[in-house]
Amino acid sequence: MDVEAEKVAVKTVLDEWIHCFETEDMESVSKIIAPDDDLVVFGTDAAEHFIGWEPFKESLQNQFDAAENVDASIREEVVKVHKSGEAAWISCLLDMEVTSLGESFSLEGMRLTGVMEKRNGNWVIVQLHVSVPVAGQAVKY
């Protein structure tokens, strides 16, 4: 296994995932997100905890329907590929400018982590977590 080549392939899927938000392309999403009943996704809102492709797909379509003028970018990416070449995990910071329901939002430094599996030669996302950090310490230490 060529670890560096696999890291590039994983990064490509991450880039495609971000691009899907800009293009609102559900067909492309369905190629890079595992259509599993045990897919796990945590979004930024308290109610955004999805188990399974269908509930996540429905929420994502609602987001696509409400959003326009999406500009997203990632930075500080970390990609780790398991020595088996069959699993990978990712983390990055996500910046997004979006207009949703007529209101503009700027979200900087969202935290995105995920797990991917290699299936039939292709990397697919099986777990995602996106969070918005609080300013300062939530609990002092």
Notes on the structure:
With about 140 residues, this protein is an alpha+beta fold. The protein has a single domain, classed as Nuclear Transport Factor 2, Chain: A. Helices cover about 30% and strands about 45% of the residues. It contains 3 helices and 6 strands, in the order ααββαββββ. Strand 5 (about 105-120) and strand 6 (about 120-130) form a beta hairpin. Helix 1 (about 5-25) packs antiparallel against helix 2. The longest helix has 21 residues, at about 5-25. The chain is globular and about 45 Å long.
Outline the fold blueprint:
Blueprint: H1 3-23, H2 26-32, E1 40-42, E2 49-51, H3 53-66, E3 67-81, E4 87-100, E5 103-119, E6 122-131
Parallel strand pairs: 1-6
Antiparallel strand pairs: 1-2, 3-4, 4-5, 5-6
Brief account:
With 141 residues, the chain is of the alpha+beta class. It contains three helices and six strands; from the N terminus they run ααββαββββ.
